[in-house]
Write a structure and sequence with these properties.
Strand content of chain A: under 5%
Oligomer: heterodimer
Structural class of chain A: mainly alpha
Order of helices and strands of chain A: HHHHEEHHHHHHH
Number of domains of chain A: 1
Structural class of chain B: alpha/beta
Number of domains of chain B: 2
Shape of chain B: elongated
Distance between the termini of chain B: 78 Å
Chain lengths: 291, 377
């Protein structure tokens, strides 16, 4: 029993990392109908920014986090202008290739600038965690779970209760209609990129103490996050969260009770099963092409 | 005008004479494929620095066959295709008589067919035992292979630490699997059946299931063959968090510079086998001092084996008095009792130069040399 609870805790912890990155995928997909393959690298950038600010420049954590998030907001705007905007009327393929290119550029840029050596970022807390009976609660995992809950709540309130959120929703549902109603579509999309970039950066800041900071850290998370968002129903915010958490729990339990070497396989088996039998995902709506 | 022309002619004559002198001491090129970019770029830095240090020393002592050595370094991009490409570029240069190859076993496997076709000696640092036992006469290994690391882990754990209940954790890649197989075999020879053999794939973000398996197995000693420092560090930290503090004897990654930095206190008190330990011999100590003075950082085994490889190769070519591949091969194989920094080299007919490992301990972050276990007959 203790073992199962321990697995559940770490499964949810790692799952909420997937969920945070998946959230970024989903938001950009909803706004642009394009998968942003550089989403994982946003996390990598956020983590590296923390290393530069808090380790190399020895700033306090709160200031490092603040500067990183602001920098990620600016970066999101630049990313939108450079990677998406020039190709926005060319269909989705050129944009996807463009995001893949951006991903390669970011990873190798950081590699050239900072070197291949993985870096450490000490935990945000002076204590590693605490034990209740046989279960160890890692303080960093608890923080990630907490932040995920807060982000999901804020996001829900923003999209459902504010005018700006509703405008962004309208843009994602039908760009032509939205622009006919006087919604500045390009601005809405830029805001989405800005927000997704900050969200990715936040995920990077949070996982840095657990997974260490390396150039490839983002892409390995992004792959799972991508699977999570498909399982949840691509384009659905709740789905991304549930999909991420479910994926984390499934692979942790699968690894513990069936086979550790096939841990990654469990995640992708679940993905394949969903693609075969429920391609719209857990929460996605069945899309019928209109005649 | 005439003056100008004369000065030109004199200049041209002087230049051509210079070129003639240059030809007399034309450098001897040694090819080297190392990961200068990609995830293993740090390894590549150690490799090239070790080799360059050795080349400088050789040149200071008069070079090889009276010619200075010049390293021609190509980037292997940390990948198998990159290694093959780098090697084929080097192979295209007819003036290169011998090469320093990759550290990673899988990249050597990828390049091996091309090496056999070319038929020139290549010094390697991969520890998969298979490499020197597949009928390729052109591979010469400058690190002890993994049959020896497994024997040393088993020997130290069973005989010195007196532990009989073993858990083995290994990466499922070529290195981890072959290490695990050898270790299981060696333990069997000592009458020990491991309580747990647990594989995992590289780049795992969470090791909770592995840690719980180790905990449940009731083992009192753990051996690891882990490939990547970040994996090792995450595993070590989760191990401590979940209260596992049994004796741990690990493969060389356990004392790699990156692992020590990432894992910190989680690795204190662990043992490891290491082919390079600065305190293991006078030669190693001297190398470590020189390396630190030159590059302002401590050397590790990636730099140590290339350093030895350049020196042994220079010695062999001098002994062979020829650049003919077959002659160089014979000269390397007849190197006996060469005091390298990784150990004492005695090449066998397979091309294996070393047959022993050092046992070291992580003493609060400092690597302490315990003993050298050698299986040379």
């Amino acid at each position: 029993m203790g073992i199962a609870l321990q697995l559940l805790f770490t499964g949810l912890g790692i799952g909420s990392i997937y969920a945070l990155v998946a959230l970024g995928f989903v938001l950009i997909y909803r706004a642009t109908n394009v998968v942003n393959f550089a989403q994982g690298d946003f996390a990598m950038l956020g983590a590296f920014s923390m290393v530069v600010l808090c380790i190399d420049l020895e700033l306090p954590y709160w200031l490092g986090i603040l500067i990183t998030l602001v920098a990620m907001l600016v970066f999101g705007a630049l990313f939108n202008l450079a990677v998406y905007y020039p190709l926005r009327n060319r269909g989705f393929q050129p944009v996807i290739i463009s995001t893949i290119g951006a991903s390669i550029l970011l990873e190798n840029g950081v590699l050239a600038g900072y070197g291949p050596r993985p870096q450490t970022l000490p935990s945000f807390f002076s204590f590693q965690g605490f034990s209740v009976g046989p279960i160890f609660f890692d303080s960093q995992y608890l923080l990630i779970l907490g932040v995920t809950v807060v982000m999901v709540t804020l996001q829900y309130l923003f999209f459902e209760r504010t005018l700006l959120g509703k405008k962004m929703q309208a843009t994602s549902q039908d760009k032509e209609m939205a622009s006919l109603l006087g919604i500045p579509v390009a601005l809405m999309i830029m805001l989405t990129f800005i927000y997704s970039s900050a969200l990715g950066g936040l995920a990077g800041i949070l996982v840095a103490p657990i997974l260490f900071v390396s150039v490839g850290m983002g892409s390995s998370i992004a792959l799972k996050a991508f699977a999570a968002s498909i399982i949840g129903g691509f384009g659905d915010v709740t789905g991304a969260i549930v999909g991420g958490l479910a994926l984390g729990v499934v692979e942790t339990f699968g690894a513990a009770y069936i086979s550790v070497p096939y841990k990654d396989a469990f995640a992708f088996i679940v993905l394949v099963v969903f693609l075969l039998f429920r391609p719209q995902g857990l929460f996605g709506e069945k899309v019928a092409e209109k005649a | 005008m005439l003056n100008w022309m004369i000065s030109r002619i004199v200049l041209a004559a002087a230049l051509s004479m210079l070129a003639c002198f240059g030809r007399a001491a034309e450098p001897l090129k040694i090819g080297m494929a190392a990961p200068l970019t990609g995830p293993a770029a740090e390894v590549g830095r150690y490799q090239t620095q070790g080799a360059k240090l050795a080349a400088e020393e050789v040149n200071k002592a008069g070079g090889v066959l009276g010619r200075p050595i010049e390293l021609v370094i190509e980037d292997s991009q940390s990948t198998n295709p990159g290694s093959v490409l780098a090697f084929s570029k080097l192979a295209g240069d007819k003036d290169i008589p011998a090469f320093i190859g990759p550290t990673f076993s899988t990249q050597i496997h990828a390049t091996a067919p091309d090496i056999q076709r070319l038929g020139k000696p290549v010094m390697i640092g991969g520890t998969d035992p298979q490499l020197t036992h597949m009928g390729n006469p052109w591979l010469f290994r400058f690190r002890p292979n993994d049959t020896y690391s497994a024997r040393v882990i088993a020997d130290y754990g069973v005989k010195t630490l007196d532990k009989k209940k073993w858990a083995i954790v290994h990466s499922t890649d070529a290195f981890g699997t072959s290490g695990m197989k050898n270790l299981v075999e060696d333990l069997k020879g000592m009458g020990v059946e491991p309580a747990l053999v647990q594989g995992y794939t590289n780049n795992s973000q969470d090791f909770t299931p592995v840690v719980l398996a180790v905990k449940q197995s009731g083992a009192d000693v753990m051996a690891t063959y882990m490939t990547l420092p970040p994996d090792l560090a995450i595993f070590a930290r989760q191990l401590r968090q979940l209260g596992v503090n049994i004796a741990w004897v690990g493969s060389p990654t356990t004392v790699a510079t990156d692992s020590l930095k990432l894992a910190g206190p989680a690795l204190y008190g662990t043992y490891a086998v290491a082919d390079f330990a600065a305190d293991s011999s006078p030669a190693a100590k001297e190398f470590a001092t020189k390396y630190e003075a030159t590059y302002k950082s401590a050397p590790d085994y990636h730099g140590a084996w290339t350093y030895d490889a350049v020196h042994v190769l220079a010695l062999a070519i001098d002994n062979a008095k020829s650049l003919e591949p077959q002659k160089i091969r014979e000269a390397i194989l007849s190197v006996k009792d060469y005091p390298g920094v990784e150990g004492t080299y005695n090449f066998d007919q397979n091309g294996d130069g070393l047959r022993g490992y050092n046992v070291v301990k992580n003493d609060n972050g400092k690597i302490a040399f315990i003993k050298h276990i050698d299986f040379s007959e």
